[in-house]
Amino acid sequence: MKVQRPKVQPAFTLIELLVVIAIIGILTALVLSAVSLAKGRALRIQCANNIRQFGIGLQAFVADNNFYPPIENPVYAKGELRGAYPWYQEIQNELYAHYGIPYGKTNSDASYPPQGIWHCPAAFRPDSFPGNFGYDDYGYNANGMNLTTDTNSLGLGGHYIWNGLRFSLPAINESEVTTPSEMIAIGDGFIGNNEIVRDGVFVLGRTYGEQDYLGSTKRSYARHQGRANVVFCDGHVESPTLKFLFEDTSDAALIHWNRDHLPHHERLAP
């Protein structure tokens, strides 16, 4: 009499299971990475569309007034010069008056984060910031290349940068911007130099002496995958790398900050 042996069911060995799990893990990582990159690109495009609107508003202001809005205007209350502080108020006025684009809050107080086109979808005020510390998504190239002790601005915000009295007048005339197509006007709220980038500021520029604030450099590089969105005085938008904006010392990198279209290497460091 033959003994009926039980049939052995085919099964994966432990090694085969581990190989399958590893393959699934690799595929999942690739998919998540692709999704993350796609989401980052989408946010950067949305931010670039915001920046483009600012360029339209800035050009409308310049066309109406023949000068750029100063970063500070102590004589505005006397009616002597349009261009009320802060600069973004005038950009909003132009966008609403000419194109019906509604206002968004731009108050620097922590209780009023930027909204509408003034909010970069990839920028968020860190919880670690002090309660009375504002956070702005976008900034104005008010100073250009400058040192913290300098009193002569090369940007758009006025002939003088902030000092103890915060004067910026007289305003920059339209004709003083030598090459509008290569002069940065408005962009992500970054300021810094070398390997340091400060975020959440309402000025945009390359300034010696900035320090990392609560992980600002890492946060800045993460916002748009190592890039920043900027609009030039002629209205076109670019997304240069942060290294190009704040580390590159070539003439090609430095001229974009200054209205005279010169690199001003003497302002890189004292």
Describe this protein's structure.
The chain has 270 residues and is an alpha+beta fold. The protein has one domain. Helix content is 30%, strand content 8%. It has five helices and seven strands; from the N terminus they run ααβββββαββαα. Strands 1-2-6-7 form a four-stranded antiparallel β-sheet, covered by helices on one side. A three-stranded mixed β-sheet has the order 4-3-5. A hairpin with a 2-residue loop joins strand 3 (191-193) and strand 4 (196-198). The protein is elongated. The N and C termini lie far apart (102 Å).
Secondary structure topology:
Blueprint: H1 14-65, H2 87-99, E1 138-140, E2 184-188, E3 191-193, E4 196-198, E5 205-206, H3 216-223, E6 230-232, E7 237-238, H4 242-246, H5 251-254
Helix pairs in contact: 1-2
Quick tags:
5 helices; alpha+beta; 270 residues; 30% helix; four-stranded antiparallel β-sheet; 8% strand
Instruction: Give the distance, in angstroms, between the N- and C-terminal Cα atoms.
Output: 102 Å
Order of helices and strands: HHEEEEEHEEHH
Number of strands: 7
Report mean pLDDT, rounded to a whole number: 82
How many distinct helices? 5
Helix content: 25-40%
**Biggest sheet overview:** 4 strands, antiparallel
Oligomer: single chain
What is the spatial order of strands in the main beta sheet?
Answer: 1-2-6-7
As for the number of domains, it is 1
Secondary-structure content class: alpha+beta
Percentage of residues in DSSP E strands: 5-15%
The unreliable regions are: 108-112
Overall 3D shape:
elongated
C-alpha Rg (nearest Å): 25 Å
